[in-house]
Amino acid sequence: MQKWHLILFCIAFSNFLYSHANINYGNNKVAGKYYSLRGIKMYTEEYGSGKPLLLIHGNGGSISSMASIIPFFSRQYKVIVTDSRAHGKSIDTNDSLSFEMMADDEAALLDEMHIKDAYVIGWSDGGIIALALAMRHPGKVIKLASTGANLWPDSTAIIPSLWKDEKLHYDSFHSKIFTTAKEKNDWKIFMLDWLQPNISLSALQKIQCPSLIISGDHDVITLEHTVKIYQNIPQAYLWILPNSGHATLNEHTDEFNKKANEFFINPYKNR
């Protein structure tokens, strides 16, 4: 690269980094938009251009949960990041919630945006939604990266200490009558993870796309459970991050970005 081209590139890249450093992801009026679909109003933000990449956050989170990886991927993808049903700015007044509903929401969003298919990155509950999306709408997912997902909600999938904390919370509040909209919504979100998901290992055979299954080596999802997910998806890779907890994409952002992008752009090779 000639000197002046390098200088121009450095200036452009610096401007890119500066502009993204000042973006309030999840509360960006320029990039934000509501879509009315399936009985809810789903809030989304879009960044960059290229092949579509759908980012899906975890339980109790929002678009801002994915902020660490948006700048990198928006350099080469059309990043679509959403507040899931009953989360963030998305408006959901219904009394039920399931991972299947949330996966169908993402498929409906792609249809509404006239997008045939997309790459997908999901974290935690978002990783579950990514798997459910690939099972229920296989033509919508080019490749997926799922980090920190579980298939069922007991202590064989979730580390026992976290499961005990959740049980204590359930035991303390399951008889309470919630009165405010926020209380009802918070309980609905909690109950999603207390009772769900309920996905069989055999159901993972429906996933037709190459899948990168990710876990931290001290994740809140047991390593044995993550390995079972990997073993039952026909075209899957397994990546265990050393010295990482549940938030792989935030604890090891640069490595996560590089690995996920390499997985997306390189052909799948049989394991």
Question: Would you kindly provide a written description of the structure presented here, covering whatever features stand out?
Answer:
It is globular, with a radius of gyration of 19 Å. The protein has an eight-stranded mixed β-sheet, with helices on both faces. 39% of the residues are buried. It is built from nine helices and eight strands. Helix 3 packs across helix 4. The longest helix has 19 residues. The chain starts with a helix and ends in a 6-residue tail after the last helix. By secondary structure, the chain is of the alpha/beta class.
Low-confidence stretches: 1-19
Residues in helix, %: 25-40%
Helix/strand/pairing category: alpha/beta
What's the helix-strand series? HEEEHEHEHEHHEHEHH
Report the end-to-end length measured between terminal Cα atoms.
38 Å
**Structural Rg:** 19 Å
The total count of strands amounts to 8
In this structure, how is the largest beta sheet organized? Answer: 8 strands, mixed
- Summed up, the helix count is 9
Shape: globular
What is the gist of this entry?
This protein has helices at residues 3-21, 70-73, 99-112, 125-136, 160-173, 181-195, 223-231, 248-251, 253-265; strands spanning 32-37, 40-47, 51-56, 77-82, 118-123, 141-147, 211-216, 236-241. By secondary structure, it is of the alpha/beta class.
Outline the secondary-structure elements.
Layout: H1 3-21, E1 32-37, E2 40-47, E3 51-56, H2 70-73, E4 77-82, H3 99-112, E5 118-123, H4 125-136, E6 141-147, H5 160-173, H6 181-195, E7 211-216, H7 223-231, E8 236-241, H8 248-251, H9 253-265
Parallel strand pairs: 3-4, 3-5, 5-6, 6-7, 7-8
Antiparallel strand pairs: 1-2, 2-4
